[in-house]
Each structure stands twice: as C-alpha cells, then as structure tokens.
Specification:
The chain is 30% helix and 33% strand. It has 290 residues and is an alpha+beta fold. It has three domains: 87 residues, Rossmann fold, CATH 3.40.50.20; 58 residues, Dna Ligase, domain 1, CATH 3.30.1490; 104 residues, 2-Layer Sandwich (D-amino Acid Aminotransferase, Chain A, domain 1), CATH 3.30.470.20. A hairpin with an 8-residue loop joins strand 9 and strand 10. Helix 3 runs antiparallel to helix 4.
Length: 290
C-alpha cells in the first residue's frame, strides 16, 4: 500500500520555502510516497467532547496519514499526532528538547560532550550582571536562526538587552572565553547517520548563520569529532536535525545547539548531497520497522 504523509508548515514559512517543499514532495514521489503540504493555520487541535481531536479546514479528518513531518516549532502538536498512533518526524520529545537551548545543554551534558559555561535563567531574574566574565552571549532559549542572540560587552549593553531588546522569558547566558566568534560547524544528521558537515563563518557578525550573510564551506570531520557526534546520535531518536558546534581557539568542537526544523541551504551550497532523498528513505525504513 502506498504511504501517505503530511508536511506541515506555517503559511508564512511555506511561502518562503516553496522550492524546498516542492523538492521534498518530489523526492517522496520518486520513492513511491505521497507527501501533501498542510498549513498549520488550517489545523485545529484540542479536546472536543473529552476526546483529543484534529480538525482540518474545520472538518474531522476521516483518514489520518501514515506519517507527518512537522516543520513548525510546536511540540504539543507533534505529541497530539503521536497520541493518535501517527509516526511524527521529528518526535515530540526531540522537538521539545531541541527547541529549548537550556534543555539541549542539560541533556547533552549528561553525555560528557564539551560545551562552554552556560547559565540558565528567567529574564525576570536578570536584575544584575551574571557571574560570567564579559564579553558573553545572551540567547532566548527558544530562539532560532540567530534571532534573539546578543553579544554583551559592557554593563550598558546588558541593561539595554534585558530591558528592551530580548523578549524571550527564558534565557541562556554563555561565556565567549576561548571561543572563535563568528564561526561554527553544523553537522547534518538523518536518523543515526552523519550526512555531512559545514563550516559557517561571518566576517561582519559574531553570529555565523547563513541567512544572516555568513559564508559556508565543507567541513571534513575527523575521527575524534565523529566519535563525539555518535555519542549524541546514539542517545536520541532523530529524524533529521542539525547539530551545531562552536569552535574554541584550538579548533575543538563545543556544543552550541541542535536544530529540530533544520534547513539544508548550506549543505546544498557546498556539496551535491541530496539530504531529502536520504530523509525519505529513513522515513520509509522507520515505518517499515513499525
């Protein structure tokens, strides 16, 4: 029987990612899978008559898909689909952990993965400079794409950041000691396989995000780095993610974050790897196992 899946995007993100969505749908079709774009705005989820319910265009869904790829950040949505017996990529657990930088560091620390000193704090408790020496970086725990990230070099910047700039309620504060600012490594992972790695650099910003004007080059992982990554991969049930690392002044990897709704522009820019083909293959294999 032919597999059918939903690909969920917000309306705004679907407009910005048309080419990627079409590529995903085409790759699925090549492998005999029907993948349908579903806008998050057209879904209503909740409890109706004491039953967990999903409405699509205000109608009860008669035939639920075999799987769902969620490209929005809403772990509860993933969880509700899972409660109905649907395979969800990424899972609600991965979505919850990877879309919260504090939780990511909490869980990855258990694996003895190198990371910079990191403070977890609520914005309401930021009444004075933290104990981390200047300069340091402040991030919204739920921020993405380099947004809600600020380099703090003096007390005035700190006060302005917590009073006006950053709107996230949950923050992390990270040391920049011995870290190469404006440079990081993103490792693309599908299932339990490392697909490839990209070095992202910016000459004009302490953030290296490609969307913010950063440059990308292929990054060959060495044996030690691959071993480090496999410790993370083997501890989680990933669908497709990007694991980001800072580089210290000795060129050693330091965990930065894990992207749940990861794009692949940088990988496509520096290689001919078809990551969505690998992802569809992974999904088919996982459904076969279930």
């Amino acid at each position: 029987m032919k597999l059918e899946g939903w690909l969920i995007y917000s309306e705004q993100d679907s407009e910005q990612n048309k080419a990627y969505i079409n590529w995903f749908i085409d790759e699925a079709a090549i492998q005999g899978v029907t993948l349908k774009l579903v806008l998050r705005e057209d879904l209503t989820i909740g409890i109706f008559q004491n039953k967990q319910t999903i409405l699509y265009n205000n109608q009860q869904v008669v035939q639920l898909p075999d799987f769902i790829v969620v490209r929005t950040v809403e772990p509860l949505l993933n969880k509700l689909f899972e409660s109905m017996g649907i395979n969800v990529f990424n899972s609600s657990e991965i979505s919850a952990i990877c879309n919260n930088k504090a939780l990511t560091h909490y869980y990855i620390n258990k694996l003895s993965i190198p990371m910079v000193d990191t403070i977890f704090i609520e914005k309401k408790n930021c009444v004075q400079l933290p104990g981390t020496p200047l300069p340091f970086v402040v991030k919204g725990a739920n921020g993405r794409g380099g947004r809600q990230v600020y380099l703090i070099e003096n007390e005035q910047q700190w006060e302005r950041c917590v009073a006006d700039d950053i709107f996230a309620s949950e923050l992390i504060i990270q040391s920049t000691k011995n870290i190469q600012l404006g440079k990081d490594v993103r490792v693309f992972v599908v299932g339990n396989q490392i697909v490839g790695a990209v070095l992202r650099e910016s000459k004009s910003d302490f953030r290296s995000n490609f969307k913010l004007g950063g440059l990308a080059t292929w990054y060959p992982l060495n044996h030690h780095e691959t071993t480090l990554l496999n410790k993370i991969i083997n501890a989680f049930d990933f669908g497709m993610v990007g694991i980001d690392f800072l580089l210290d002044t000795n060129g050693k990897l330091q965990l930065n974050e894990i992207e749940d709704v990861v794009g692949s522009r940088t990988l496509s820019a520096v290689s001919d790897i078809n990551i969505l083909r690998k992802y569809v293959t992974h999904i088919i294999k996982r459904l076969g196992q279930n």
